[in-house]
Amino acid sequence: MKILKYLPILIIFGASALLGQTADVQALAAAGTQAAAGNNKVVTVVMYVFDAATGNPVNNVTAADVTVTSPHTVLGQTCYGAGGYKISNFAGPVPNASSPGYYEFFVNFAQTSCTWVKGDYQLAISITKSTLRGQVAVGFKIQ
Questions:
Q1: Shortest CA distance to 130 belongs to which of 46, 11, 23?
Q2: pLDDT at residue 94 is higher than 80
């Protein structure tokens, strides 16, 4: 009897695990020559997205499919939780890239009054495209 009582819960968990496919997401973020302590200029992110099951590049990701969050705060940074981050200048798949599935975009604070402070930042980049899901963590340093 107890097995039958818990059986529907097991079925729900099993079904939810089958609802999505895994994306292999690789990314690199760099402050470059723009973002620096005291300003609110952009950080550049380059990203590759592949279907983890087939290894094929995913070439139909749009800015609406990407979210950027931060799993922690940097000492002295007061803008976390105040609208988070925004993505701009999303380009992809980049037509002249040597590999398909290559995307490039800028990340900045959602609030224009926020500025960078010196420190090591970490971003979580999530992809949700139809049933394809993936996430990657990237880090960069603001000087």
A1: 23
A2: no
- The beta-carbon contacts of 66-72 under 8 Å, at least 24 apart in sequence, are 66/90, 66/105, 66/125, 66/126, 66/127, 67/125, 67/126, 67/128, 68/107, 68/123, 68/124, 68/125, 68/126, 69/123, 69/124, 69/126, 70/121, 70/122, 70/123, 70/124, 71/122, 71/124, 71/137, 72/122
pLDDT at position 20:
58
pLDDT for the residue numbered 12: 24
Please give the model's pTM, rounded to 2 decimal places.
0.76
Range name among 10-14, 47-51, 53-57 with the lowest pLDDT average:
10-14
Contacts of residue 87, Cβ cutoff 8 Å, sequence gap at least 6 = 63, 66, 68, 105, 106, 107
Return the H-helix or E-strand segment holding 27: strand 21-30
Closest by Cα among 64, 36, 42 to 109: 42
Closest CA to 120 of 75, 81, 90: 75
Domains of the chain as residue ranges with CATH: 21-142 (2.60.40.10)
